[in-house]
């Protein structure tokens, strides 16, 4: 073997290229306390909603609530699956409920989930393939080319 480093460099680049776009949901620290809830974010005279986000569309909640006058207040722990809380002032100040009631006076929080596509089946891996497959193919081809020259 004349150039063992070339093979190692190629393998290292392939590993780094593939891991750069992987999104892992890591567990929060043991002492972590979630502060992004409707109950904790909603002030008197406001309506707040909680919306589920997945890696498939990070903008779903913003697209759904910002046109309605809501502003993003916070995001829960998570990288590929998490919740966002959006709040807005009530139209009529006297109609809002106490904090944590979703502005409805009584009842619970308003919670919506991001729309799920009809093709979703079970679990999936959060891996952004955009641009990565071409890079991996090119690096693999380069590795094979250098291997044949030896």
Helices and strands in order:
Elements (H helix, E strand, L loop, with lengths): L3 H16 L18 H4 L4 E9 L5 H6 L5 E5 L5 E9 L20 E3 L19 H18 L1
Parallel strand pairs: 1-4
Antiparallel strand pairs: 1-3, 2-3
Question: Could you please describe the fold and organization of this structure?
Answer:
The longest helix is centred in the last third of the chain and has 18 residues, at 132-149. 29% of the residues lie in helices and 17% in strands. The chain has helices at residues 4-19, 38-41, 60-65, 132-149, and strands at residues 46-54, 71-75, 81-89, 110-112. With 150 residues, the protein is an alpha+beta fold. A four-stranded mixed beta sheet has the order 2-3-1-4. The chain has a domain at 34-117.
The rounded Rg comes to 23 Å
Strand content: 15-25%
Q: Write down the overall mean pLDDT.
A: 73
User: So what's the overall shape?
Assistant: elongated
How far is it from the N-terminal to the C-terminal residue, by CA? 7 Å
How many strand elements?
4
Low-confidence stretches: 95-130
* Topology order in helix (H) and strand (E) letters: HHEHEEEH
Helical content stands at: 25-40%
The number of distinct helices, counting runs of at least 4 residues, comes to: 4
Global structural class: alpha+beta
Strand order of the largest sheet: 2-3-1-4
Largest sheet: 4 strands, mixed
